[in-house]
Amino acid sequence: MNEDSIPTADSVPASYRYWQNAAKGLLEPLLALMQEGEAHIPIQGKASDHCLDADRLEAFARPFLLFCHWEVSLRNYREESDLDALEKGKAWFRKALLLGTDSQSDQFFGYSTNYRQHSVEMGLLGIAFEMSREWLWDGLDAAEREQVLLWLESDAGNGHHWNNHLFFGVFLLEFLAAERGENPRYRAAIDWYFEELERMYSGDGWYMDGSNQAYDFYNAYAWHFYPLWWIRLYSEKDVERCQRFSDRTRLFLENYSLFFADNGEHPAFGRSIAYRFNATAPIALAYLVGASPLSPAESRSLCTRNLEFFLTRPIEQSQGCLSIGWVDEFPELAESYSCGGSPYWAAKGFAPLLLPPSDPFWTEEAAAPEGDRSVALQGPNLVVRKVNGASEIVNVGTQIGSSNTRFGVHKWGRLSYKSGWGFTLPKGDGLYPLDGSLTAQMKGSELVYGRHGTVPLALESERMACMYSLGGKVDGLQVSVETSLFWKGDWQLAVHRCRACQDVTLRFGSYSLSYDEDQSILVERGETMVEARTDEKAMVLQMVAGYEAVGLDERASESDGPRRSIQAPFHVTGLLLGELGAGESVCLVSLSYAGANSEAAKPWKILSCDDEYIQVEHPTLGVWEVRDF
User: Fold this and answer.
1) DSSP-assigned letters across all residues of 223-292
2) 373-601 — its CATH code?
3) What is the CATH code of the structural domain delimited by 10-363?
4) What does the alpha-carbon distance between residue 360 and residue 206 come to, in Å, rounded to a whole number?
5) What is the pTM of this model?
6) What span, in angstroms and rounded, lies between the C-alpha atoms of 572 and 534?
7) How distant, in Å, are the alpha carbons of 34, 113, 234, 336 from that of 398?
8) Is 522 exposed, middle or buried (0-12, 13-18, 19+ CB in 10 A)?
9) For the segment 470-505, what is each residue's pLDDT rounded down to a tens digit?
C-alpha cells in the first residue's frame, strides 16, 4: 500500500468500514482457535460423510477465503486495531498450508482422488492463492511452492460430479498452468470442462445443476461466481467465452433482486442454505468485471441488506463460529456433506471487499427496495414474486435428480418458498414434511410422499400449472396429480386434480407459522378453516372444495418431539385432508394465506366453484375470479 495514497478514516465510507468490520468479526473467533502446529481450525460440528481429512481441509480452505477477502480490503484501508489480527492470520495460514500439504506431516490433508471432496477445496484454493499471491504464494521459496503444487496435482484428471463441481477442475488446472507454464493437455481439459458446463445452461441466466437436476441458489454462488472469477483472472484465455458468461450473468441479475425481501432475507430454497449470505456472491463481482445490469447503489443495497439480516441473528455456535442453521444454530439442517467448517462457504458473500472504498459501489446513495413485482423465469421453471416486502419463489417444474433425494426432496419439491416463513424438516425417514405441499399416504403404510419429478404445464407471472405423481418404489403407491396455483397478494389459490391407484389420505399443508417461546400464538380450528396468529404474522388455510376435514401439524412445546422448523423452535401448519379410494378422482381446491396479521388475513366467501371457474370474495381484497384449464 502506498502510504501517500492511504485514505484517512474521514474519507472512508461508513458502508465500506461496515463490511470490513463484519469480515473481521467473523474472523476473530477463527483466529482465537488457530493453534501452532495444526493445519486446520478446530471448528466444532458434525462430521461429514466424506472423511476426516476432507473436513480438516474445509476448516482450512473456507476460512482462508474469508481471510483473503478481508486482507485485500486492508490494502486499501486499515486501522491500527486491524494489524494484530492481520499478521496472526497471515502467519498461521502460511504455516498451516505447508503442514497440510506435507505428506510426511501428521497434519497432512491427504491427496485428492476421484470424486473426493478435496477437489472442491483445491479448486477454491486456486482462487484464494491468486488473491493472496502478494503476501503468501510469492513469499514461499521454491521448495515450498513445489510441495504445494505436487499436492494440487493429485487432483489433475480426477472425476468430478457432473454439476457445478466441474468449475473446480478449471481453477485447479488454471493455477497449475500459471505456475508450471501452459500445458496443451491441461488447456484441452479446461476447454472440455467448460463445454460440459455450458451444456447445463437452460436460459434466463439459469443453469440446471447437472446431475442434481435442480435450480436453486447454487446458480448465484456457483454458476455466476466461478465464471466471473475466471473472467477476472484469465479473461485473455477465451474472450468469446468471457462474453457469453458476462451476458448470462447480466441476464440472471436482471431479476435477481426479487429473490430478496425488504429486510434482506432470501427464501430458504434448495440445498446448502446454511451458507446463508453467499446468496449475494455474484452481485459485486459482476459489477467489478462490468457484467452487471444493476447500479452501484442497487448492488450494494442487496448485498448489505442480506448480510445485515443474518449478522443480526444468533447464527453463531458455542465457539462463536458460524453455525449450521438458517436464522440461528440448528444442526439438524445439515446435509450429509456438511461439517463444522462448511458454513464458511459464506465467505463468497464478501466479494464487495474486492472494490476500493472510492468506488461508486460504496459512495452512491443507497437504493430503496423495489415494490411488488412478479416474473416468470422460463429457464429454471420458477416464478419469483415480490409481495408486501417479502420474496416468494413459486416452484413450477422441479426435476430432482435421484442423486439429490438423499438431501431431502422437500428442499425443492414444495409448491412455493417464502422469506420469513421457511419450512419444516421431516419427522423421520420416509415422511415428507406436510407444510407447503400436497402429500399422499397409502392406507396401512407409514410412508408420506410429496412432489418429486414435475412436468410444467403453465408458467406465467400470475399463475402456474404442473403435473406430477405422489408415491414411490417401496410400497408401489401411485397418485397422479395436476396442480394449478394462483396468487393475489399474500394469498394462494391451489387446485389439485388427483387420481389414486390405491386407497390414500391426501393432505395439503399451509406455510408453517414458526414462533419462539416468548411469542404468544392463537390457533383456531373450525370445520372448514384453520388459522394461527402471532402479533405480527398470520397463517390461514381455507377449504373451497373437495376436502373433508381440517387438521394441524404443530410443535407447541418441548414435549412434542424434536424441533423441525428452520425458523424457530415451535411451529404450526394448517392441514386440509381428503380420503380417496382406489381408481377414484377428486378436485381439491383451497385458499392459503401467509403474511402480516392484518385485514388481508380475513377468510373469503365462496361465490362459485366448478371444474373450470372459481369466484371468491374478500372483505378488503374484493372479488377474485380464476379460470383454470
Assistant:
1) ITTHHHHHHHHHGGG-HHHHHHHHHHHHHHHHTGGGGS-TTS-----SS-GGGGGGGGHHHHHHHHTT--
2) 2.70.98.70
3) 1.50.10.20
4) 28
5) 0.96
6) 11
7) 43, 32, 34, 22
8) exposed
9) 998 888 999 999 999 999 999 999 999 999 999 999
